[in-house]
Design brief:
By secondary structure, the chain is of the alpha/beta class. About 30% of the residues lie in helices and about 20% in strands. Strand 9, helix 5 and strand 10 form a beta-alpha-beta unit.
């Protein structure tokens, strides 16, 4: 059976909850769209997140890699179109703050997702879950992981598709942070499930 590596992150910054962690745990071990879901949780650490994700890729040898990240403030589930060769933003959970730092010194400016992001969006909407293609994965850990995985695939010419999906806050997180849109964790999980099902069509 084909394998899909699904990753999420631990809580970070002022977010005491990271719903991506719960989605990964909920889908771990399931078979969706003909893919066995292998879930892994990544640290919010510039030095470690990409390294650990690459290690999981090496261990699992998946056919597809989908990484999930929290974008508190967005109101739709948003597959990312592109990752750029830049690390910048708030300090990570280790206190490291980078500015205008390349992910790969001699890497290309960016990598496009190799996932069917438009089909992902359409599938989610068809199931009643708002979604849209996003044209920026930012410059924080989410972008770092997306770029690093796509870079490995390109450099090693691996027969593997990969990309990133940002999700809104869960209700549980919104109860602790006022003023942000939120979804139920069940709906967030079902939107991701609908997107994964596309891969088997």
């Amino acid at each position: 059976m084909k394998k899909l590596l699904l990753t999420g992150f631990v809580p970070f910054l002022d977010n005491p909850i990271n719903p991506t962690e719960e989605i990964v745990k909920a889908l771990e071990g399931q078979t969706i769209g003909g893919y066995e879901i292998v879930g892994r949780i990544l640290p919010v650490d510039f030095a470690e997140s990409a390294r650990q994700c690459i290690e999981h890729v090496n261990d699992v040898k998946p056919d597809v890699v989908i990484s999930l990240g929290l974008a508190a403030g967005r109101n739709k589930v948003t597959p990312e179109r592109i990752a750029i060769n830049c690390r910048d933003g708030e300090p990570d959970n280790s206190g490291v703050r980078l500015q205008d730092a390349p992910i790969e010194e001699i890497g290309p400016a960016g990598y496009f997702s190799t996932l069917p992001i438009r089909a992902f969006v359409n599938a989610s909407i068809d199931k009643g879950y708002p979604a849209a293609v996003s044209n920026t994965a930012g410059t924080y850990l989410c972008n770092n992981v997306m770029y690093s995985v796509l870079h490995k695939i390109e450099q090693e010419q691996l027969p593997m598709r990969a990309g990133f999906i940002h999700i809104p806050a869960s209700h549980e997180l919104a109860l602790k942070k006022s003023g942000i849109p939120s979804w139920s964790l069940a709906d967030l999980t079902e939107s991701i499930r609908a997107m994964i099902e596309v891969l088997g069509e």
